[in-house]
């Protein structure tokens, strides 16, 4: 049956299909434009992060300054950089990380912050004189061996022992002569695969097989034994006197503990590839924290 619509006022009857179709189309178009069906839009106009030199936010304004900031830039002090640990600061300054923790009353070695300024010379020593002469902390040979010292210093919290007495002043010339008088020995028997390069290799790379002996290069005392320094793997650091320390990296096994006295030629580790792409010993000699070329100090082979 065909539907007809009677126009009012006696008009002519016409088909209703075109009119119904037009109404349906209008309804569809209106529904699509309805705000209820509007797709969510991600607001990308949020406040950008403050750039250097930009305005200080209220949160930043309320944040206290890092500890020791008043000593920033002074001789004998070190400003903590991103990625630093007390172990790395000790290596860079030629000091025992535990001494640095004690001098700065740092109870938890893991809680230091970027921008913090720490003292890297002992109390009672003029930092300016120490920077010029390399005045040491207490002689490393004078500290007794602690049988309970942890093998890894990365997770240890440094306690606050009795204050360190000021060392007896030593003439600069005498100190330099005594500290440079070290009977060095090669730390491994393998060949040198990479020499010293101050910008790329801060020591020597010595080849070998997994398990080969790693030997102390001179008499001294272990100031770190662990794996808490990124890029060095299982690491031993030995302090020989007030000027020199040595580092032995990438070992597979450590055979000594912190604060242990060692003798020249003593086996302190076994060679490995921890944090390295092949078995090797990375060996550093640091003078007052600065890397020097070990080949210039080690005896000829």
Q: Count the strands?
A: 12
Give the overall shape.
Answer: globular
Unreliable spans: 8-14, 32-53, 135-177
The number of helices is 6
Give the quaternary arrangement of the chains: single chain
Mind describing the biggest β-sheet? 10 strands, antiparallel
Mean pLDDT: 75
Which terms would index this structure?
single chain; about 300 residues; alpha+beta; 10-stranded antiparallel sheet; two-stranded antiparallel sheet; 6 helices; about 15% helix
General description of the model:
There is one protein chain. With 301 residues, the protein is α+β, with helices and mostly antiparallel strands. It is 17% helix and 19% strand. The chain has six helices and twelve strands. Strands 3, 4, 5, 6, 7, 8, 9, 10, 11 and 12 form a ten-stranded antiparallel beta sheet that branches. Strands 1-2 form a two-stranded antiparallel sheet. Strand 6 and strand 7 form a beta hairpin. Helix 3 crosses helix 4. It is globular, with a radius of gyration of 35 Å. It starts with 16 loop residues before the first helix and ends in a 9-residue tail after the last strand. About 24% of the residues have low confidence.
Task: Describe the secondary-structure layout.
Blueprint: H1 17-32, H2 58-62, E1 77-79, H3 86-93, H4 97-103, E2 117-119, H5 127-133, H6 172-180, E3 192-194, E4 204-207, E5 213-215, E6 220-226, E7 234-239, E8 244-254, E9 261-262, E10 267-271, E11 280-287, E12 290-292
Antiparallel strand pairs: 1-2, 3-4, 4-11, 5-10, 6-7, 6-9, 7-8, 8-10, 8-11, 11-12
Helix pairs in contact: 3-4
